[in-house]
C-alpha cells in the first residue's frame, strides 16, 4: 500500500481506502462488513469512510462494532464521518450545517461508533441557509474539544471552500484540510479544473468518492443489472438509472480492451486512473464482498503501466459522457 499526506496536513492516509455507503446494513450484515474491513486492512488500508446518514446511523454502528471486534489499536486507523442530512425532519437538524446540529451530530456519531474521537469530519454538503462563519466556528470547536482531529467539506464549490479557509485564517481557527468530491472517468471537472487554484493556495487534499461510478466502471452493467449488485436494491431507483446509462456502459465496453491490453481488470484500470491525480490523497473504494477488495487493492500495481498515452486513450473512450 502507498500512503499519502492528507493535503498539507501531517496525516497519512492509504491511497486506497474503504467506504460504507449503500453497502453496510442494506447489502451486508455486521459479520460480512467486518470481513470486508479486515480484508482491506490486510491490504494496508488505514482509512475507513462513513457518514451519519448512511443507513440512518446503522452504518456507523456496524463499523464501530467491527473496530472493536477486530481489536485494532486506535492509532492504527483513520475513521471519518460526514454531517448535513441529519437523522430527523426537525428543521434545526435536517439539511443544515448550523451550530446546534453540528454539536449534536458529532456526539451522536461518536455514540454510534463507540469511539472517543473521529479522525476526519466532513460537512457533507454546503448549506446556503447557514453563514459559513457559523459552520467554521462549530467545526473548530468540535476539534478544540477533542472530538475530531481534522475537518473538511464534501461537494462544496471552490468559492465556498476558500471562504471557509479565509474565515479560519482570519480568526486563527482550525482550517478545512480536505474535500471529498466525486471523481472518476465520468466526473472530472471539479477536481481537475474548479479546485486547481486551491491545491497550491491552501494545500487542499482530496479523498474522492465513487471511483467506479458505483460499479459502472467495472463493466458489470454492460449486460444489464446483475442480481447481486446495488442496482437491485429497493430505494435506490434513482441510482439504477445511472447504472444502466447507455452512454456510460458503451464507454465501459470501449475501456475493456485497454484493461485486457494491460493485463488487469477494468475495475483496477479505472481505480488506477483516479490514483494518478497528484492531488488525490485517497481514493475511497466501495465493496460488498471480500473478492472485490482483493481485486481493487491491486489497482496500485497497475499505476506504473498507466502511461500518458494510455491515460489519453482512456479519457478519449469516455469523452462522450465525461464532464
Ligand atoms: P464505487 O464507485 O467504487 O462503487 C463501489 C461498488 O461497485 C461496490 O460496492 C460494488 O457494488 C461495485 N464494485 C466494487 N468493486 C468491484 C469490482 N472489482 N468488480 C465489480 N463490481 C465492483 O464506490 P462507491 O460509490 O461505493 O463510493 C465509495 C465510497 O465513497 C462510499 O462508500 C462512501 O464512503 C464515499 N461516498 C461519498 C459520497 C459523498 O457525498 N461524500 C457519496 C458517495 C460515496 P455491488 O455491491 O453492486 O457489487
From TrEMBL:
<feature type="domain" description="NADP-dependent oxidoreductase">
    <location>
        <begin position="16"/>
        <end position="317"/>
    </location>
</feature>
<dbReference type="Pfam" id="PF00248">
    <property type="entry name" value="Aldo_ket_red"/>
</dbReference>
<keyword id="KW-0521">NADP</keyword>
<dbReference type="InterPro" id="IPR005399">
    <property type="entry name" value="K_chnl_volt-dep_bsu_KCNAB-rel"/>
</dbReference>
<protein>
    <submittedName>
        <fullName>Aldo/keto reductase</fullName>
    </submittedName>
</protein>
<dbReference type="InterPro" id="IPR023210">
    <property type="entry name" value="NADP_OxRdtase_dom"/>
</dbReference>
<dbReference type="InterPro" id="IPR036812">
    <property type="entry name" value="NAD(P)_OxRdtase_dom_sf"/>
</dbReference>
<comment type="similarity">
    <text>Belongs to the shaker potassium channel beta subunit family.</text>
</comment>
<keyword id="KW-0560">Oxidoreductase</keyword>
Amino acid at each position: 500500500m502507498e500512503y499519502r499526506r492528507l493535503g498539507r496536513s501531517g496525516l497519512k492516509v492509504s491511497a486506497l481506502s474503504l467506504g460504507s455507503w449503500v453497502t453496510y446494513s442494506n447489502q451486508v450484515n455486521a459479520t460480512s462488513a467486518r470481513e470486508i474491513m479486515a480484508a482491506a486492512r490486510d491490504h494496508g488500508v488505514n482509512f475507513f469512510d462513513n457518514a451519519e446518514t448512511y443507513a440512518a446511523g446503522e452504518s456507523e454502528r456496524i463499523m464501530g462494532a467491527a473496530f472493536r471486534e477486530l481489536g485494532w489499536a486506535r492509532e492504527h486507523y483513520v475513521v471519518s464521518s460526514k454531517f448535513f442530512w441529519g437523522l430527523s425532519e426537525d428543521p434545526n437538524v435536517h439539511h443544515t450545517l448550523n451550530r446546534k446540529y453540528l454539536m449534536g451530530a458529532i456526539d451522536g456519531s461518536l455514540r454510534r461508533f463507540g469511539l472517543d474521537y473521529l479522525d476526519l469530519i466532513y460537512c457533507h454538503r454546503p448549506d446556503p441557509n447557514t453563514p459559513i462563519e457559523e459552520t467554521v466556528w462549530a467545526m473548530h470547536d468540535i476539534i478544540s474539544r477533542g472530538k475530531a482531529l481534522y475537518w473538511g467539506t464534501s461537494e462544496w464549490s471552490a468559492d465556498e471552500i476558500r471562504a471557509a479557509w479565509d474565515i479560519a485564517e482570519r480568526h486563527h481557527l482550525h482550517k478545512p484540510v480536505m474535500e471529498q468530491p466525486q471523481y472518476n472517468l465520468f466526473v472530472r471537472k471539479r477536481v481537475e479544473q474548479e479546485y486547481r487554484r486551491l491545491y497550491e493556495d491552501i494545500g487542499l487534499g482530496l479523498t474522492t468518492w465513487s471511483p467506479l461510478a458505483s460499479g459502472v466502471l467495472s463493466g458489470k452493467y454492460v449486460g444489464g443489472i446483475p442480481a447481486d449488485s446495488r442496482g437491485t436494491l429497493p430505494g435506490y431507483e434513482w441510482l439504477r438509472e445511472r447504472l444502466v446509462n447507455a452512454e456510460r456502459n458503451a464507454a465501459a465496453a470501449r475501456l475493456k480492451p485497454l484493461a485486457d491490453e494491460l493485463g488487469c481488470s477494468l475495475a483496477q484500470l479505472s481505480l488506477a486512473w483516479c490514483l494518478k491525480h497528484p492531488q488525490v490523497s485517497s481514493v475511497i473504494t466501495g465493496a460488498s464482498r471480500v473478492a472485490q477488495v482483493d481485486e481493487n487493492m491491486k489497482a496500485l500495481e497497475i499505476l506504473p503501466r498507466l502511461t500518458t498515452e494510455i491515460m489519453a486513450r482512456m479519457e478519449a473512450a469516455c469523452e462522450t459522457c465525461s464532464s
